[in-house]
Each structure stands twice: as C-alpha cells, then as structure tokens.
Amino acid sequence: MRAHATLATLALAALTLTAADAAALDASLGARIGGYGFRQVNASGGMDFFQCRMDGVGLTGTVDLPGSFFTELGVDYYHALAQPVLEGTDRLSLHTSLAAGYRLFPDSIVSPNIQAGVGAEFTRVSALGAEAEAVVPVAFMGIGGEVNLGRMRLGAAARVHAMQLPVYDWDAIRTQDAVDLRTEVAGQVLFSMRYML
Description:
Order of helices and strands: HEEEHEEEEE
Oligomer: single chain
Number of domains: 1
CATH class: Mainly Beta
CATH architecture: Beta Barrel
C-alpha cells in the first residue's frame, strides 16, 4: 500500500513538472527567404560560393526551450538561378530540416544565436539531357541573430552546409543519361521573420 502511494506521489510530481515545463515553452511560426551556393575556385584563383547558386523560400516552426535553447523545424523550396540555367544546369530542391540552437541575451532587443542541424533534401537536376533525382542527407551549422519587436522576430543567419553538388563531364555530357552527386561545402544566407504564438 505504501509503495502504491509512493508511486502515485512520484507520478503526480512528474505530471506537475511536465505541465510546468510545457507552460515555459514558447512556440512561433515564421517564413524565410535565402540562397546558397557551393564553394569553388574562381577564375582569379580565390575561393567563393557561387557555384550552382540557388534561391528559395521556406516556412519554419520554432519552440523556445528553457535555458535559452531552441529547436526549429523548417521546410524550404529552392531553385537554380539564371546563371547556372544559362550554363546548361537546372535544379530544384525541397529541404526539410531540424535544428537546435542557443540564444545569447534572449530578452534583449538584439539576440545573437548559434545553431546546428540535420535534414533531408529531395533534389532534381538536369544538365543538357543528363538527369538526376535523389533524396540525400544534409547537415549544417551557423550563426545568426534576431531583432525582438514585441511578438515579432526579424532575423538573419549565415550557415555552412554539407550538401550534394551535381558533377558531370561536360565533354561526355551528351552521351550521359545521369548526373552524379558528391558531397560538397555550401554557404547559405537566410533572412527570416517569425511570430510568437
């Protein structure tokens, strides 16, 4: 009997703690725009991130956790810019991602943050008749910040991704029926807004 009472007391305490933690969570919904490009050695011998440039839009759901931590679920659609299309490459990608991060000074008007995450990308690539379609993993880390305007948050972030870059032999492209993919580093810039629920 005493054991049952002890278990009931512990269960009630756990439920009370769970309810208190849930009440401390702040959720928000948002949207973002951005673009990314893969690293390359340019004509002058320097490094840039202008290879296979893509721009897109996305929707996000964020939960602010106790202790300045947060999680973010994102769904984004990206398409190739005019330059790669003119060069013979067309690409579209749908990204789903889950990030975790930490906000510095979350109650200040300006709040920097750090973040890292993983996800999956559905991508379709075509290059002068050669094609590829695949679901591939994505990983990223980045830094960003937000301006707190009441229940509205305006943000920007810079991320470094490990993503799949289409590669092909231009000399043999007309005889290939597929575009290969390889893991490469990409740089991304995002601008976002979200509303606290």
